[in-house]
Design goal:
single chain, alpha/beta, Rossmann fold, Arc Repressor Mutant, subunit A, 2 domains, seven-stranded mixed sheet, elongated
């Protein structure tokens, strides 16, 4: 049974069945077993069963389990899980790290295959729909367990666990260490930090409903924030940002123009403060003079 928030299983435990080891992306049966021992479900639903790890372990432990997957005809994006369960286990693709339809299974790409989403925003949107549909089958007091990992693309991190919606009351996040993955055999440049973990996010459907129609949803959204509307942005930052907007260097009048509409500049004007003098001082203290009246960001 899980005893800490770190789970590791370097070897598939002897005597524990569960799926095909050659199926890319599947999780070790020991994880399912320890989660089942922890949450003690009587009925499990696994709507993205892949190679069948969760169902195999459930049957070995004498727990009833319904399993389905896109490759066997069940579509979690458009379908309803046919039975209520006190644990719904979801192990979705991690965007396009492993492409499933047409490669791992089948001969053609499936339009609702999460691993074939054209971009990350589409993937997260469809993943949220899948998780919402999965949550519908969770019985009151039951749990939704979602196993996900992060994606790295061209030096940028796509943190699925943070970006996806969490349905229900947060109960636990377990960090699952990865072992024997194909990426471990690839050569990366010296600046690359390899991802060696996944997350198991466990939420709970409340036992009591003040209003059964309401669903607790936690989500993180990435949005652009225009700093020109923030009075708390510092003067150095204002000057450096103005120079960045000018391509790294600019004439004094152009810097004034960049800063002219800033909320802190407007606040300074209401107080009778000479904000242009402040900008000149910042330029002298922290920037590089190129020639008279022309300034650049310091290296």
């Amino acid at each position: 049974m899980l005893s800490t928030t770190i789970f590791t299983s370097p070897q598939r435990e002897a005597g524990i069945s569960g799926g095909r080891a050659g199926w890319r992306g599947n999780h070790p049966p020991t994880l399912s077993r320890e989660v089942f021992e922890w949450l003690k479900p009587k009925m499990i639903a696994d709507p993205m069963c892949g190679s069948g790890t969760t169902g195999d372990v459930a049957r070995q432990m004498g727990i009833a389990c319904w399993s389905g997957d896109l490759h066997s005809g069940f579509n979690l994006l458009t379908g309803e899980i046919p039975t209520p369960a006190d644990l719904v286990w979801v192990h979705p693709p991690y965007w396009d790290i492993v492409v499933y339809s047409g490669q791992v299974w089948g001969k053609e790409a499936h339009p609702d295959d999460l691993s074939r989403c054209p971009d990350y925003a589409t993937f997260v949107q469809r993943l949220d729909q899948a998780h919402y549909n999965a949550y519908q089958a969770v019985q009151a007091g039951g749990h939704l367990a979602v196993l996900v990992g992060d994606v790295k693309r061209k030096g940028l991190l796509y943190p699925i666990m943070r970006d996806m919606r969490w349905y229900g009351e947060p109960v636990q996040v377990v960090i699952k260490l990865q072992h024997n993955v194909q990426s471990a055999n690839k050569a990366y440049n010296s600046n690359f930090v390899s991802i060696a973990h996944e997350y198991l996010v466990v939420t709970r459907k409340p036992k009591q409903f003040a209003n059964a129609w309401l669903v607790s949803v936690r989500l993180a959204q990435t949005r652009e924030l225009d700093q020109r509307g923030l009075e708390q942005q510092g003067w150095r930052s204002i000057v450096w940002t103005a120079l960045s907007a000018l391509g790294g260097q600019g004439e004094l009048q152009a810097i004034y123009q960049q800063a002219n509409s800033h909320a802190r500049v407007k606040l300074a004007e209401t107080k009778g403060t000479d904000w242009q003098a402040i900008i000149r001082r910042v330029l002298q203290e922290s920037c590089t003079p190129v020639e008279r009246g022309l300034w650049a960001l310091s290296n």
